[in-house]
């Protein structure tokens, strides 16, 4: 039996098998952890075997969607979703300062709170 020595061919075959497995009902196991702090919160996402380039994050109003797509390099139209998680963000999150960082196999989405959150404010009563 002759072994295949072309490593690029093996990588392409493995990617196609991965893509077909996902299309056939396979899933990428993900782990999500949410930690709350005084100045904000952090969503940590671990997804085994998912490249950092495959992650996508969409923020629309107070909804944050984290998902990943497995895309064929040979056929860009052929893609399959690996996972999809949606989070409804509380009103104290400063949506303009949300950021994401990928480090050592972990995606971290940082959700800072508004600076004035937690400080009482007296509301003036207007007389008509």
From TrEMBL:
Gene3D superfamilies to which the protein is assigned, alphabetical: 2.60.40.790
Q: InterPro entries from the entry? A: A-crystallin/Hsp20_dom (IPR002068), HSP20-like_chaperone (IPR008978)
The cross-references to SUPFAM superfamilies, in alphabetical order and at most eight, read:
HSP20-like chaperones
Write down the CDD domains for this protein, in alphabetical order: ACD_sHsps-like
In what residue span(s) does the SHSP domain sit? Answer: 22-128
Annotated family:
Belongs to the small heat shock protein (HSP20) family.
Output this protein's name: Hsp20/alpha crystallin family protein
Name the species this protein comes from.
Answer: Pontibacter diazotrophicus
